[in-house]
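Re: the 390-residue chain
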Amino acid sequence: MIASPQQALMAAAHKARELGFMPLLLGDAIEGEARELGRVMAGIAMSVRRWGQPVTAPAILLSGGEASVTFAGTSFGKGGRNTEFALSLALALQGAPGIWALAADSDGIDGSDDAAGAIVAPDTLGRAAGRQLEARDFLTRHDSYSFFAPLGDLLITGPTLTNVNDIRAVLGPAECGNKQAATLTRMEVGKAIDSKSGAVKRENLPRNQALPHGCLTADEAAVIALGHAEPRPFWDRLLDGVAQSGAKGIELTFSPFGWRDTLAAYGSVQGFRAALDQRGLQLATGFFADVAIQGDLLNPQRQAAHIAQASAYAAYLAGFGVDVMVMGLPMRQTWSNQPAPIVGVSEVAAMADFCNRLGAAVLAHGIRLALHTEAHSVFSLARDIDIFML
């Protein structure tokens, strides 16, 4: 024997300290019913979160040993002791913020299935609800594998050719895990951008700065990088969160939350529409951000490019039955000044003419144009609006 369960836990504890977490080793021979252990571990995690007991957060609870699953009746689904532990834990935590967990068999096979175990995130139950997966029903029929599989949260390693029993880790509460390790600087994101396509290449991101799976609360640059590098999981998580909130409609805005990003994620209008339908959501409207970002509407070539892009966007929106596109007008060069500077009549006349031509282009697709009276834009003051309407 060259390794033991205790050595595996000690190695995990050492790595946790390096990452800024306080490890609490609960033992390498924790046994019993998997679902009962899940509830107990959730209780300890909640105590850490609420009271800093028995260890101060941010902390990681580590345990080993082999749990068991007792089947009642003759009908049961797929899954092993680790996925059952994880599902029971998720139900007990009820989406407690900041608490993540992993339960896996060190040999890579949990029971007789191809997964080593599963991962639990704060949004596990919410994402499941967005897919009409009732967690408690899956636990009752011992079908934990089938619960985690559609969420993409099974841990599949393949045979590891070693076996030091099960390893269970419960992490938290820290916002998106170790924030220091999860945050990318704007300079790092800038280096990862492909000069030709403008897309962020994930392989160019610093290896030690990868975002935790599903985390969307790091800094702005990191969120943008994740959305561009992994559009499908990014949008799946985003839509699951919207469905969990009870909202029924969404508005597309700036990248990585824009219409082109949905095509990168789902391949087509039909693909994105299917993703919305699956969660009971609909596309309410789309925000055309190009004008607000790029400004300078007095350049004829830029005007033509904007109109072409808006027309393509309108055709996309029409595929969802949407009939309104919202557009922001350019920001003032001195947007931080209060009160906002006055825009001259000649400049407004040129912008109004452009808006009329762009509006006609999107109307050809059955889409009406609405102007956003956002702060700091050339369309924010009552006087601005009066002049535009002349």
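The chain has 16 helices and ten strands.
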